[in-house]
Amino acid sequence: MKVPILTYHSNNIAGNDYATNDHVALAEDLRTIARLGLRIVSAAEVVDALLGATPASSVDNAVALTFDDGSYFDWYDMEHPHYGTQRGFAGILRDFAAATGMRAHATSFVIVSPAARAVLDVTCMAGRDWWRDEWWPQAAAEGLVAIENHSWDHNHATLPQTVQREQRKGTFKSIDSHADADAEIRAAADWLDTHLSPYRSTLFAYPYGEWNDYLVREYLPQYAHEHRLRAAFTGEPQPVEANSNRWLLPRYVCGHHWKEPPELERLLRETRS
Fold this sequence. Notes:
This protein is α/β, with parallel strands linked by helices. It has helices at residues 22-35, 43-50, 89-100, 114-123, 135-142, 178-195, 213-222, 224-227, 261-271; strands at residues 2-3, 5-8, 39-41, 62-69, 78-80, 84-86, 106-110, 145-149, 203-205, 231-233, 240-241, 252-253. The chain has one domain (2-271): TIM Barrel (Alpha-Beta Barrel). It is built from nine helices and twelve strands. The chain starts with a strand and ends with a helix.
């Protein structure tokens, strides 16, 4: 078992070429995946195989795709104020499936707090109310893009206040108590389960890709009956393997761990099962 998980951020639009636009990169990378003869599986299926719920062979010769933050650009085509019409990530997946006949699927790890997203829409995007959540139930029901947990408020540095008890913002390493972890992780899971019912959230992606010993060794494994998660994902550039820690599952991040198509092709060839 050796499955690379590729991560994209639909907010990353600073131009209209591969290096500056994750939408351009995703479309090109899907073509690379198809050309190499790889399959696309869901992040949940990777976890199923890791935990022994399905055979490891179920994820042979496969990659998984994840998106972080859960803005409108994950789902909708949008008119960017500087770079024109952008095909949404969901549309890119649909185009790929229609062109190749291959299965397309991704998991969007979303920032859950409506109030936090309203602020982040202004501080991190164009302030056009592009971070609402009405598309999440539709995505969950359709099955093209799964909706999973990326924390309550990301403990984001640009928020006037976060749920972190001492306001140590801009890092997830400061989420180091049961109260803080519950406020960031379990509260987000509760909100998703309520608003996306009958769908249930079982996966988590650390904001900033950051974790600490408390989360990995105590909160996530010992309080699973409360937060109900099965696995957590980082931003470490490794494939998921049979001996991977379920609370530290690695992912490759577009723009950080590869910056052009040949680099991704080398990465995929090296990790091919």
